[in-house]
Amino acid sequence: MAPCRTYSDAVLTPVSLRQRGTALQTRTVTVHSRWIAAVFGVMCAAMTNVASASAEPPPVSPQAQAAGLVDVRSVVPDARIDLRYATADNFVGVQLYPADARCLVHESMIDGLATAANQLRAQGKQLVFWDCYRPHEVQVRMFQEVPNPNWVARPSNYARSHEAGRSVDVTVADGHYGWLLDMGTGFDDFTPKSLAYATDGVTAEQQANRALLRTAMEAGGLTVYPGEWWHFDGPGAKDPRPILDVAVH
Predict the structure, then answer these.
(1) What is d(CA 217, CA 172) in angstroms, rounded to the nearest whole number?
(2) Which residue of 2, 40, 139, 150 has the fewest CB atoms within a 10 Å radius of its CB?
């Protein structure tokens, strides 16, 4: 794809606007170049994002390969990756993953996630990933912050769910405009409204949006965790396995 030109490369021409007062008259208004620059920048960014979404992700590490982990973008090329634990925008309030963390999932989830993404894509929607594989030490840190197994899984001597790369935290975005569908709560909202089938304080539209996500994920054989509308388990997610020693980048 050719690089985006700067706004100075574009031809700036006056725009004629016809305005009605006591009589019709034509006034020429010159559009401010900074406004054009801003609009052009947004268009350029959008085109760049489209191009990068179709790019093949780099290979995962040998350790990740040995554990059967793959980059979710190799399965869902248009996946939107927003790993909250790679930023301080999470319930712990500190960055838990490196900034270049990747969304890794176990290969057993490949078909299910592809099916869910295809179903949403057909409706003009896009899967957004908030969390995927989670290292054991991060799970320990989370439980120290919120030692309530109803909200944060208690660490053990085995890997399950996120720690095994067999669960994902996801939501849905509009495939054209990019905004998130209103689900009634944000990510890691430790209130009754975050329950998957909550109705109190959750509008009909929000319930329908959650159902849209559940239906797509269930079509791929992925099961929602009743305590969190955003959490879905893949095959064998609850089975105990050896703790993985795999970095998230």
Answers:
(1) 11
(2) 2
CB 86 within 8 A of CB 111: no
Decide if 228 is catalytic. yes
- Specify the pLDDT at position 54: 52
Tell me, yes or no, whether 215 and 188 share the same domain. yes
Distance in angstroms between the alpha carbons of the first and the last residue of the chain = 27
Over the stretch 170-209, which tens digit does the pLDDT of each residue have? 999 999 999 999 999 999 999 999 999 999 999 999 999 9
Instruction: For residue 25, give its domain range.
Output: 7-52
Please count the structural domains in the chain.
2
Query: In Å, what is the CA distance from 244 to each residue of 81, 88, 155, 247?
Result: 22, 24, 13, 9
Task: Please state the separation of Cα 130 from the chain's center in Å.
Answer: 5
User: 59 burial class (0-12, 13-18, 19+ CB within 10 angstroms)?
Assistant: exposed
Which stretch of 44-53, 129-138, 178-187, 208-217 has the lowest confidence by average pLDDT? 44-53
Length of the chain, in residues: 249
Same domain, 26 and 92: no
* Residue 67 token pair: 């554990």
Same domain as 191, residue 87: yes
0.90 surpassed by pTM: no
* Claim to verify: residue 213 and residue 128 sit in the same structural domain: yes
44 and 67 both lie in a single domain = no
Residue 249 inside a domain? The answer is: no
